[in-house]
Amino acid sequence: MPAIESGFAVLALWAVIGYLFGSLSGGMLMARAMNLGNLREIGSGNIGATNVLRTGNKKAAALTLLFDAAKGAIVVLLARAFAGEDAAQIGALAAFVGHCLPVWLNFKGGKGVATYIGILLALAWPMGLVACLIWLVMAAVTRYSSLAALVAAGWTPIVMAFTGYGHSFFLAAFLCLLIYFRHWDNIKRLKANTETKIGAKG
């Protein structure tokens, strides 16, 4: 029993650490540091890199993307190093939730794509590269960041299941479902052909 309780305590600790890391918003930090204004009043009102790009500051958008990906990766790598694979996956899930529902921003966060990719790169870097490649190809072809994210998130768990990375399949699949849920309004706009394309101000 003590061993079980100890194991649960370790996982709970990494869940808290993951959430706190994940709840740090790269977009809000960059907007404040570079005087970009209130992201909530720009474009879609989202705090992610795509909306930061609508300020016209490509550097801020790139740094936001890197920050939000890095925080997910850091949690996974630290948890794995200190507590093992189960803690890494729990920390990854918590970091994703923290990004989407940050306590500091009244639980109104981003959509999780950059953090998802960072998590994948740390869990199984080839799958992270697969997700990046799919996103880049879809974004280049369609100019829709949301559609690229949905396709990348949807295909990555499938690729995992058939390439020896099944240990992370369920986490990736669950995060995929959360990404689709977070993108529900985007999905409706894509169907209505009213979604904003990459680089557009609106």
Automatic annotation (TrEMBL):
Record-linked InterPro entries: G3P_acylTferase_PlsY (IPR003811)
Reaction catalyzed: an acyl phosphate + sn-glycerol 3-phosphate = a 1-acyl-sn-glycero-3-phosphate + phosphate
Highest taxon listed in the record's lineage: Bacteria
One Pfam family recorded for the sequence: G3P_acyltransf
The protein's name in its UniProt record: Glycerol-3-phosphate acyltransferase
Entry's transmembrane regions: 6-31, 60-82, 88-107, 114-138, 158-181
Similarity section: Belongs to the PlsY family.
Keyword DNA-binding part of the UniProt annotation: no
UniProt EC number: 2.3.1.275
Matching HAMAP family: PlsY (MF_01043)
Assembly and interaction partners: Probably interacts with PlsX.
Membrane topology: Multi-pass membrane protein
